[in-house]
Structures are given as C-alpha cells and as structure tokens.
Write a structure and sequence with these properties.
DUF1059, binds zinc ion, mainly alpha, 10% strand, DUF1059 domain-containing protein
C-alpha cells in the first residue's frame, strides 16, 4: 500500500490517497475531484477539468499516466 496526495496528482490540496497501484490512487483522485466539483470547490476545478480531458483524450494523456505510474512506483510502501 502506498500513499499519494491530491497535490502529487495535479490537485491543489494535501489529501492522501492510499492504494496498491497507481490506478487505485488515480481513481481515488478522480472521485475526490468529482466530489470537490459537486461541492462547488473552485480550487479543484482546474485539476478536475484536466482529469476530464485525460479521460476524453487518453492517447494524449499517456505521458501523464506514465509519469504518475513512475512516481507511484518510486514511492516507499506505507509502514504496516
Ligand atoms: Zn484535493
């Protein structure tokens, strides 16, 4: 299990996401951004729009996924 923050995933806050894979934390961040948007949180709007754009243009976004997966792989495991 590893921890990646909203900020590390392109967002504005330090909320921590925990997951076994980069996909887990990316999905958690996606959910977090959706909730922020629903709550009218303007600070997360830019990151939310960027994430929406990634789903729409997956090929263009491969670099971001690769970087995020590499960053996740480089993280230490959470202490048990
Ligand atoms: Zn956040």
């Amino acid at each position: 299990m590893k921890t990646m923050t909203c900020r590390a995933l392109g967002g504005p806050c330090d909320l921590e996401h925990h997951g076994e894979s980069a996909d887990d934390v990316i999905n958690a961040q996606d959910q977090h951004l959706k909730e922020a948007e629903k709550a009218g949180d303007a600070t997360h709007q830019e990151a939310r729009d960027a994430m929406k754009g990634r789903w729409r243009h997956p090929k263009k976004s491969l670099g971001w996924y690769r970087d995020t997966k590499a960053a996740f792989a480089a993280l230490p495991d959470d202490p048990a």
